[in-house]
Design brief:
By secondary structure, the chain is α+β, with helices and mostly antiparallel strands. It contains twelve helices and eleven strands. Pfam families: Pkinase.
Length: 329
Amino acid sequence: MALVAEPLVMRELPCKVEDEAVECLGDRYVHMETIAEGNYGQVAKMKDKVTGKVVAVKTSSLHTEEGLSSYSLREISALTACRHPNVVQLHDVLALPNSVHLVLELMPCNLMEYMRKELKGPFEYLKPAFLQILKGVVHCHRQGYMHRDLKPQNILVDANCNLKITDFGLARRFQPLHPGRGPITKYVVTLWYRAPELILMHRTQCMYGQGVDIWSLGCILAEMATNSVLFRGDSEIDTLFRIFQLKGTPTVETWPIIEQLGYFSKNWPRWKDTHFETVLEKCRYTHEYLKEMLSDMLQFVPEQRWSAHALLAHRFLREQGATDRATEA
């Protein structure tokens, strides 16, 4: 059953300058430590004086005359609309004249850290863990949102192996593709998890849908199974060629519109499809349907990728009651 998002009120704090942000937050929160910094701003671990809960406070500067940046607006809108057990919870939004502070559920680590530090042997929780990610994506898609930056760093994990999707700063409401719709930005999704259409489309022709999230999910599943990044490219062309080396260089037979894409080249090297055998050789978790599921997600043609909802019933996840749990999404 889909959860109904309660309206979230942005509270404006009585501060006049950015330097007073810490003082204003200090009325309610005790700063414990800074846990992350990036282009978006800073994330701090804080304790709520009222509830006693330890939370994550994400601080972003206001870059526009109109107020909130598109990054903050997207994140607030998406998190408010997409409340779900497998999506990080937004507790509060605090506004200052020069910054905005998102009070979020705190989780101890992300999936990348968990895979690198915590896993000593085969990922025994591969199916239930991936199922949680998938259920979160299903809910976001049902609410009309594309995440557009799914990767292990944006999936949080707690001590009980509960997984939650975070970082919705690039999220966007999905609009059906039609000839009259203008292009949308192609500069989304971290390179290693970026669908080939995002790499190959010229920015003037860039129209895509929720399939970009499915491609990212396929990359994440492969990484969870092998503890190795699937397409570790150091540039767009390097990433593209790594995709071709695994799946074969696409042709008009395998991807009918390939020659219409802005960055298509007839001079590409010709690689043959490995049918994911090279991935399975590195796999720490063997299952006869894993290759099939990866293939169903990592299709060149976006429309041929299974939807997130359809993947819930995939036979890779079907055993040991996985299908019954999937119906709860």
